[in-house]
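Hi Prof. W.,

I finally got the SWIM-type domain-containing protein prediction working! I wasn't sure whether to trim anything, so I left the full sequence exactly as given:
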Amino acid sequence: MEHDGDKVNQRQDEKYCSFVHRNESECLKLGMIVYSENEAYELYNRYALEKGFSIRKHQKRYVHGTNQLRERSFVCSKQGFRYDYRELEIIKREQLDTRTGCMACISFKIDKGVWEIVRFNDDHNHDLALPEHRHLLRSGRSIPTAIKGVIDSFVNAGIGPTKARSYIAKEMGGVTNITFTSRDCHNYVQSRRLNLIEPTDAQMLINHFKLKQTQDPMFFYTMQLDNENRLTNFFWRDGISKLDGDCFGDVVIFDTTFRTNKYNMVCAPFVGINHHWQNVLLGCAFLLDETTSSFIWVFEAFLEAMGKAPETIFTDQDQAMANAIQKVFPNTCHRLCDWHIFKNAALKIPHLYGKSDFQKKFSKCFYGCDTEEEFELTWKEMIEKWNASENKWLKTLYSLKKKWCPTFSHDFFSANVKSTQRSESMNNVFHRVSRKTLTLTEFVDHYEETTEKQRETETNEDFRSNQGKPHVRVPVGILNHAASLYTCKIFGMFNKEFENAAAENIVEHFSDVTTHFYTLQKEGYRRKHIVQFKPFDFTITCSCKKFEAMGLWCCHIMRILNVNTNTPRIPQQYIVRRWTKSAKEGMTIDRYNEPIQTKAKESKTTRLNKLMRKAFYAMNLAAFDEKTVQMSKESMEHLIQKITDYKRSLDVSDTTNSDSVVQPNDTLSDKIKVLNPPSLRPKGETNARIKSRNEKRKRKTTNVAISHKLQSNEIIEGNLNCIHIFTFFLCFYYNLLIILPTMNRTNWAINWHGVF
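And this is what came out:
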């Protein structure tokens, strides 16, 4: 978000311009006047940077009993001495003593808005900075707003602040021509991240959504709070997603396998398939838990946002989700993800799934049955052959056969999707940016970047499809029509079916009064398909029901058409618009005709980019010789002075600035403050920093070494005890040998008692 009317950025930009366009012959004298505190500071700062020292603000004096400022002072940054108030604290990094008690300063007297220099001391008791070091002076270091925009673009693209600064320095002719250091760049990026989570992550998220509504009238969001006003569930989609939902919302993939790490909320994107066979995001939700009530809420929110229910929805195997779909989308075909079922089979029935014969029969139940009778027969054979009639998991799977076996859902359009892996591919994208401290606002930013990349890819494919048509190898009328009708990807699928039609043989044919019946069989295969064709109204159907499920003719239908008629065009009733180049034709939104968004986004950075293109063209012409360079300098000085006079004439306190952008923290705050979701830490998860593999290996090695050291110490200590005992008995035995021969029995008893 931009802060074009922000005074801090305005002062930094003026400081930058002053540093770059400073007048080298300028000097300070008593009696010079300026008209604001910013001008006073910049006047002295410009002089200081020329001389080689840095400045800071000092004292303010007011008219007695009022808040009216009467005097303002600025001093050298080395004025005074540092008071070390941290003597008793543990200092991680020792700072240098830069204060030398320098007396250089300047004072301004303020009277009726006029700032006049009344005191000026230019005597320094320290060395001044060399010319090659002056760009490092603290008061001359700042990041202009335009440069901040460049850094933001680099960071959003995954490029670090150090590389971003190196690029900027190279573009500006070296590090001496930029007014900030690598540390300044890192600090700016860090402060930008901190600003994203203030005042609270949830409240900032809601404010961001409200700001999006001012830019996109079709932007939709809804949220759910608990009794303590904490965010529990929320859903959002923009205007373009609404358009995509109108065109491609017949098939939706909904997956909940991804969770954020900070609040452990479930990320649930709604993914569709566009006319280029690409993923398209229709919306996204965050759920606190995976209960039936949460799923009912999010499906109702999706229904409200899109205005219609999908024909088919793909999910993983979750009973709570199934209950919610049955209630909110009663007429929608609910399909389960095949990939999850095969994965669970390897876990639930490993003794069966590990056998290749069982895998073939099990896969045939999914993909090899054209009719319900064939499925029932295949399943029965599988159960009887491997004696699995009492297996609970297979019993449960069989009870859900209508949700995973395509044989029972051929009459519903499914775009030939078999699993939720399309949605999982989106989650893989989100996993790349996931970290333990990822906030909701940061995730929404990444989501918006992902949608922009997807839409850019779609735009490129639209351009490619509209610029021409795929090459048709066989000059057949129906192929030429399909090439001009469908997108490149869909035509490739159509053309593949046309080529496969040549391998289909008509093994049986009979007809009644209105209908022709054809039985087709592919060479080398036992499976047969029946095609019914009514010539009077050109109605044609196939037992494989690919057109009903996919929206494209199958190879069996194309084989019959080649035999019966020379069809130059695809009949209108068999053209599914969602696969054509004109899928979005007649549906406009601000993405294509943007009067509202353009006005809202015409910010300072946008205008700056336009001016920079003009300025670069002028500078390129001016660099021809010295005369044109001098002409450019004079023109720029005149332009700078003219703009400065115009800005000075404006009332700085005027809040109706044309550059101002609606700030969500101020004007879009809710009456009820939304609090962050409760942090539900999953088992085994901590909020500590994730250790790298090398650190884990090093710690493991250290633990082993410590263990060996402790064992060695125990062994040494035990050996020393043994040596002490052995030495004691050795000395005792030696004493006995000496004293026994020379003592009588009484003295021996006394000495024996003395030894112990």
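The two ends are 89 Å apart (CA to CA). Does that look reasonable to you?

Thanks,
D.
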